[in-house]
TrEMBL record:
InterPro entries with a match to the protein in the record: MAM33 (IPR003428), MAM33_sf (IPR036561)
Gene Ontology terms: cellular component: mitochondrial matrix
Listed Pfam families: MAM33
Protein name as it appears in the record: Mitochondrial glycoprotein
Length: 204
């Protein structure tokens, strides 16, 4: 009878660990593919905006819209940290940055916003900060970016939000961003799991 050496025992233990890991990975993949919480949700629409960037390898999406007047609106959005205890089907808020540029000017308005589910099938956005930037270079932290949005007159806060709605930042768009970015993240997670499975199961 051949002697079982520590090397053989280590290899056997590694095989068992790999098999356990494979079982867990395959179970998680099966769960993710069978339980798709966002598929039944209404997706909204990006309206008049065009998709400027939406790589499957990145977390963000960039939308742009140019008016006949030459005015441009750019939106950059990605998921923020998970918000616990909200009871929402969407566990994370969308962080949305909206930039508005007038034709012939280097200056722009920048709004930092958050998008979340209001009620089932509805979304809402809130402005966290609003900046007037003389140029792109003024976005550096050392430049004065204006007062805290929450300290502005409530009528001005409301008027600025109405301004963004008029620029196309509406319910359909925010709903699209909320759903699209959650689905994108889930797809990236499943893809990552499948790559791990393929690596661990190599030669299985």
């Amino acid at each position: 009878m051949p002697r079982i050496t520590p090397v053989v025992l280590n290899k056997a233990g590694q095989v068992l660990e790999d098999l356990d890991l494979l079982k867990v990975l395959r179970s998680e993949i099966k769960h993710e593919l069978s339980f798709i919480p966002f598929q039944s949700k209404k997706g909204g629409s990006w309206g008049e905006f065009a998709v400027d960037w939406d790589s499957s390898q990145s977390q963000d999406v960039v939308l742009r819209r140019k008016y006949d007047s030459g005015e441009e609106v750019a939106i950059s959005a990605l998921l923020g940290p998970e918000t616990l205890g909200t009871g929402s089907a969407f566990p994370r808020e969308v962080r949305m940055k909206v930039c508005v540029r007038k034709p012939g000017l280097n200056s722009l308005l920048q709004f930092d916003c958050g998008v979340k589910e209001k009620n089932v099938g509805e979304s809402q956005f809130a402005i966290h900060n609003a900046y007037y930037l003389q140029s792109i270079a003024c976005s550096r932290r050392s430049a004065y970016r204006g007062p805290l949005f929450s300290t502005l007159d409530p009528h001005l806060q409301s008027a600025l939000k109405d301004y963004l709605v008029a620029m196309g930042i509406n319910e359909g768009l925010t709903r699209f961003l909320l759903l699209h970015l959650h689905k994108k993240e889930q797809g990236q997670y499943v893809n990552w799991l499948q790559k791990l499975e393929s690596f661990v199961g190599k030669g299985d």
